[in-house]
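Subject: Sanity check before I submit

Could someone independently write out the structure tokens for this chain? I want to compare against mine line by line before I put it in a report. The sequence has 411 residues.
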Amino acid sequence: MSESARQDTPEQAEFRQFCRQWLQANKPSAPSVRLPLSPLEIMTRPQLSYLQDWQKSAYEAGLVGCDYPPEFGGGGRSDCQRVANDEMIRARTPYFPNVIGLGMAAPTVLHHGQQALKERLLPRLFSGEDIWCQGFSEPGAGSDLASVQTFAERKGGKWVINGHKVWTSLAHFAEWMILLLRTDKSHKYDGLSYFVVPIRAALGNGVTVRPLIKITGETGFNEVIFENLEVDDSYRLDELGKGWQVAMTTLLHERGAGELQTPRAGGMKSKATHATNTANLIELARSTPRNGRPAADDPLIRDRIMQLVIREQGLAQNQRRARVSALQDHPLRLQLQNKLLASEITQDTAALAVEIEGASASLYLGDDNAPASGQWPMAYMNSYGMTIAAGTSEVQRNILGERVLGLAKSK
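---
Independent answer below. Compare away.
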């Protein structure tokens, strides 16, 4: 019996059994197209369609939005989303494509949206029929998010939006965007407001999406340009000038620190593609020759792998602690620490894998001679996005230092 199962309430145990049986009978067949490492790298319609079909199937079975109120399309359960997520990971199912919608937009809309907006948006978000993206970063406002300059001017019951967002994952497929913008230029924080914007319907008529090509050759993220886009005031979340507070709800969930209050609406981890964990790293070291012997026989390589195993296990135990509110000495510490460590462990694991592969790491995806089908170099290049997303590692350390440890602000 797993650790999770031993801690289940009777309701959770019954639901776990249902999830396990349903997944055994309904796990999707292998895709006919190559899936990227994460939903943030989805590039093609066939990739998206396969994953959307899977998310809709899981939602209709009750494995998505489990803990959200039924009137908003949820399952009305209590702390059962983690159970569904556990079982999907155990069954090695594909990830869901609507990662931004499930992890960030759903809790933000739930906490700050009007009743009619929740009823309209959340069911199609859970089902994956409407893909969401996040409009936060700008060319001149990345780490200093409060300096965003995308501006909305009020005209009667409408708002006219002009501005430029960048690094916008999934914008090329998104129907909706969660959008932080400025409604008052005289105040840095109090001048910010928060909207949900239907960008797909406005393509070519106030919204332009331009793909950005990454070092991997993938185009998972984009820049989005607003030119006199009109949206109704009913799309605003919370009060005018409260955008910074709403954005903090989004960021807390993006960083994993909001899940004790509002769990994620669905599973986002993938076992369908190459997992960048130490178990696969060990397998790579055993199968890769180095000076005529397996790389795993090199004592220096073995030591470095064990250091990563220790870090990975420490992170796993911290993630268990983070799910128990009574064990937390500060509401931000473990979750923000876990975000920081998870992204850096993933990067360091992929970096060692590339070193083990040596010259073979230059072989691209699909090359018959590429170790692990070329997934490790791809994982290493993609890892830099994860140490930047949701605030860079430097920003995370500043938050932990200032807000958790009480250190003086850095200059």
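---
OP: Matches mine. For the report I'm noting this point. The domain at 3-129 is CATH 1.10.540.10 (Butyryl-Coa Dehydrogenase, subunit A; domain 1).
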